[in-house]
Amino acid sequence: LEDRFGRFHNYLRISLTERCNLRCTYCMPEEGVNLTPEERLLSGEEIKRIARIFVNEGTTRIRLTGGEPLLRRDLPEIIESTSELRSQGLQEIAMTTNGITLGRKAKALADAGLDSVNVSLDTLDPFKFQLLTRRKGMEKVLEGVQTALDVGLKVKVNAVIIRGLNDDDVEGFASMAVDRPLEVRFIEYMPFDGNRWDREKLVPYSELVDRIREKYPDFERKQLEDAPNAVSKLWHADGWEGRVGFISSMTDHFCATCNRVRVTADGNLKVCLFGNDEVSLRDAFRSGASDEEVMELVSGALSRKKPRHAGMFNIAAQTMRPMTTIGG
């Protein structure tokens, strides 16, 4: 799982579905996407096999994504079987969700072995929520966040900030970390197919910090150096129960320490979120490949991984999958 630049990839993200019950503007085109036929998606057994192969090679962290993973009926079983890999070195099972049905399902997932959850929420205003997601349901998401905390899950709230749309929510989001043991993470707006990305809509990390400091003058870096392979730059203020993180994929990338690979819901391995190169593990499985032969495909893909992404303007100019079909 090591590439030619010495980066060891111990973090695997597996997308469980392309379907979603929201239509977020930065993730999915307004007209939706052409979904992959069900028979071409990974089965539960294939997902379990991927997890086992990667953990045997040194993966310590697995994140389940989508689409919306809570739409997958066998999600508790997938988590439970993945949790059995802890004896082989797996340390954490996480999930990224829009939180719409999290309140109803959080306890069962925690009981199955889920450790942490990232909840995507881009505004604290119900009207703007409907504008951003093209659906209602903000209150359900907030209820899901609280329920996840109540059942003992580690919680992060992810907000993609878009200038002129939700950048006035920044201070409110930061306030969530004052009296709750969670991490609010601000994500720079990234270009994906169909999301109408515009450089002028990107609010850079440095500007977000300045805005929060206007309300909280003692807001500061939580540590001088972020943890190895960290994507989030951590800040807080004295007395806060939680913290705030900034994911500066566009203005201050972290490619040099990247330790992540993705498997899409249709079984393709992506070694870079912003790269178009993909290798089908699904096809390898269904043609009878052994675990060793699958790992040869993985190693080959990693050997072609580039030192960094192409930069936001080049990324914006290329054709890429919509985020919902990659896996958030």
The profile of the biggest β sheet is: 12 strands, mixed
Structural class: alpha/beta
Basic shape:
globular
Rg from Cα: 19 Å
Determine the N-to-C terminus distance.
Answer: 21 Å
> Which range best describes the helical content: under 10%, 10-25%, 25-40%, 40-55%, 55-70% or over 70%?
25-40%
Number of helices: 11
Instruction: Report mean pLDDT, rounded to a whole number.
Output: 89
Strand order of the largest sheet: 7-8-9-6-5-4-3-2-1-10-11-12
What are the low-pLDDT stretches, counting only 5+ consecutive residues below 50?
Answer: none
Tally the beta strands: 12
What's the order of the H and E elements? EHEHEHEHHEHEHEEEEEEHHHH
Report strand %: 15-25%
Structure description:
- This protein is α/β, with parallel strands linked by helices and 328 residues long.
- The chain is 30% helix and 17% strand.
- The chain has helices spanning 44-56, 75-83, 102-112, 126-133, 138-150, 170-175, 205-215, 281-286, 291-303, 312-317, 323-326; strands at 11-15, 61-65, 92-97, 116-120, 154-161, 183-188, 220-221, 233-236, 243-247, 260-263, 268-270, 279-280.
- Helix 3 runs parallel beside helix 5 (138-150).
- It starts with 10 loop residues before the first strand and ends with a helix.
